[in-house]
Design a protein that fits this description.
CATH topology of the largest domain: Trigger factor, domain 2
Order of helices and strands: EEHHEEEEHEEEHEEHHEHHHHHEH
CATH architecture of the largest domain: Orthogonal Bundle
Distance between the termini: 55 Å
Structural class: alpha+beta
Number of helices: 12
Helix content: 40-55%
Number of domains: 3
CATH superfamily of the largest domain: Trigger factor, C-terminal domain
Length: 445
C-alpha cells in the first residue's frame, strides 16, 4: 500500500511504499529454485546443490531483487490507480532491512507539468513566397552544365575549338603546375609539389597564389611572396611569409555542354528535349521552394509557440534527451570515420540547452494536439505518403515501403502533426507574407 505521496517541489514527488515480506515467500522460493537449477559447485551435479547452500549463497541477492521488483510493480500499480502522469522512471530507495517483516521503499519521481497555452492571437510570424522564373531555371541549368565540364589545352585545336587566341591562364581555367616554397631561403614541409592541378577562381588556393598564376602561359615561371594567415591550418608556416616559384606545365580551358536536346538526354530526359528538361527543373525548384518555405515557417511557428506557453520542464526528461543527443553525436562521429569515436568523451552538459528546448516543445505540442484535437488522420497520412511517393519512378513501391514499417509511418505521422499544428497556429496568429527571390530564400535561416 502507499503510505503517502509528498510534494517535494514543482514536479518532484515522493511515494512511500509498504508491503509484507511474507507476501513475497512464494516468489522467493521460486527464484531460489530457479537459481539452484543452474548453480554449479564442486562435488554436486548441476541442479543438485542442496537448498541450504543455495540459500546461503544467493538468499540476500534474491531478497534484494524480488523486493525491488515488488516495489516497482506496486509503484506503477498505484500510480495508474491514482492517475499520476509520470515524467520518467522512479528512483527506488529501500528504507528497511532485507530481512524485516515490513518492507518499506521510498519512490522518488517527477510528474508531467501543466502546460499553460498562451494567446496565439498575439503572436506574429512571416510566411515567405517565391516564384520560380526563367532566370532561376537558367541558373540551375548552369549548375548542371558545370557538373559536366571538361577541359581542353589552350591553343590546341579540337572538336570544341581552341579556347581563343589568348593562351594565358584565365579565371575558370584548369592549370597544372609545379611549385616550390621557401621561408628565409629554406624549403619547408608541404611547400613543394609537382603536377599540382586546380581551377582558377574556385578559391582552393590562397589569393596570392591564384593572382600569381593568372596570365601565365604554358612553360612560364614566376616567383612571388605569399603571406600565410595567422590562423592557417599549417602551424609551422602560419603568420609567416614564403617565397614561391611556380612553373605552369599546362593551361586548360573549360568547355561547358550546350543546353540542347543532347544535354537533356544526358540528364535522363528521354522525351521532350530542352522544353521537358526546363519543366522538370522548374518542378524540382518548386519542390525545393515549398520545402524551404515550410521549414522556415515551421521554425518560426515553433519558436513562437514556445514563447507563448508556460510550463516546468522535468529534469528526468532533459537528462534522457541529453543521453540521446550524446549518442546521436557519437554515431555521427563514427559515420564520418573519426578514430575511436565509439569511446569519445562527449559531455552531456554541452546539450543542456538543446535538450531542454526539445523536451519543452515536445510537451507543449503533445498538450496542444490533445487539447485542440490536432491528431493526424489516416487520410492525412496517406495523402502525405502519396505526395512524397509521386517524386519517384515507382510511386506504388514507395507507398508499400512506407506502410511496411511502423517507424516510417510514425515519421510521416509526426510530419502531419507538425503541419496540423502550424495550420492551427497560423489560423490565429498574425501572418505577414513577404515575397523574396530564390537566392534570398536560400540565404534565410
Amino acid at each position: 500500500m502507499a503510505l503517502q505521496i509528498e510534494n517535494l517541489g514543482q514536479l518532484d514527488r515522493k511515494m512511500t511504499l509498504e508491503f509484507a515480506r511474507a507476501d513475497l515467500a512464494k516468489a522467493r522460493e521460486a527464484q531460489l529454485a530457479k537459481v539452484g537449477k543452474t548453480m554449479k559447485m564442486a562435488g554436486f551435479r548441476p541442479g543438485k546443490v542442496p537448498k541450504s547452500i543455495v540459500e546461503k549463497q544467493y538468499g540476500m541477492q534474491v531478497d534484494f531483487e524480488i523486493q525491488f521488483d515488488k516495489a516497482s510493480e506496486l509503484f506503477f500499480e498505484l500510480s495508474k490507480k491514482e492517475g499520476i502522469q509520470l515524467a520518467g522512471q522512479p528512483r527506488l530507495e529501500p528504507k528497511s532491512e532485507l530481512g524485516a517483516d515490513k518492507i518499506i521503499f521510498d519512490a522518488y519521481f517527477e510528474v508531467l507539468p501543466e502546460v499553460k497555452i498562451g494567446d496565439f492571437t498575439k503572436a506574429e510570424v512571416t510566411k515567405y513566397a517565391t516564384t520560380i522564373a526563367d532566370a532561376e531555371i537558367d541558373r540551375a541549368l548552369d549548375v548542371l552544365r558545370k557538373q559536366q565540364v571538361h577541359y581542353h589545352p589552350r591553343g590546341e585545336a579540337g572538336p570544341h575549338g581552341d579556347g581563343g587566341a589568348n593562351t594565358a591562364a584565365q579565371a575558370g581555367d584548369q592549370v597544372i603546375i609545379d611549385f616550390i616554397g621557401k621561408i628565409d631561403g629554406v624549403e619547408f614541409a608541404g611547400g613543394k609539389a609537382e603536377n599540382f592541378e586546380y581551377v582558377l577562381g574556385e578559391g582552393r588556393m590562397l589569393p596570392e597564389f591564384e593572382a600569381a598564376t593568372l596570365g601565365l602561359k604554358t612553360g612560364e615561371s614566376k616567383t612571388f611572396p605569399l603571406s600565410f594567415p595567422a590562423d592557417y591550418h599549417g602551424k609551422d608556416v602560419a603568420g609567416k611569409t614564403a617565397d614561391f616559384t611556380i612553373t605552369v606545365k599546362k593551361v586548360n580551358w573549360a568547355h561547358l555542354p550546350v543546353v540542347d536536346d543532347n544535354f537533356a538526354l544526358s540528364l535522363g530526359v528521354t522525351e521532350g528535349g530542352v522544353t521537358k528538361m526546363r519543366e522538370e527543373v522548374k518542378e524540382n525548384l518548386d519542390r525545393e521552394v515549398k520545402r524551404r518555405i515550410t521549414s522556415l515557417l515551421k521554425n518560426e511557428v515553433m519558436d513562437q509557440i514556445d514563447k507563448h506557453c508556460e510550463l516546468d520542464v522535468p529534469k528526468s526528461l532533459i537528462a534522457s534527451e541529453q543521453e540521446r543527443l550524446v549518442e546521436s553525436a557519437r554515431q555521427d562521429l563514427m559515420q564520418r570515420g573519426i578514430p575511436n569515436a565509439k569511446d569519445a568523451p562527449i559531455p552531456a552538459e554541452m546539450f543542456v540547452e538543446q535538450a531542454t528546448k526539445r523536451v519543452r516543445l515536445g510537451l507543449i505540442l503533445g498538450d496542444l494536439v490533445k487539447q485542440k484535437d490536432l491528431k493526424a488522420s489516416a487520410d492525412q497520412i496517406k495523402a502525405e505518403i502519396d505526395e512524397q511517393a509521386a517524386t519517384y519512378e515507382d510511386p506504388k513501391e514507395v507507398v508499400r515501403w512506407f506502410y511496411s514499417n511502423p517507424s516510417r509511418l510514425k515519421d510521416i505521422e509526426n510530419l502531419v502533426l507538425e503541419d496540423n499544428v502550424i495550420k492551427y497556429f497560423t489560423s490565429l496568429a498574425k501572418v505577414n507574407e513577404k515575397a523574396v527571390n530564390f537566392e534570398e530564400l536560400s540565404k534565410l535561416n
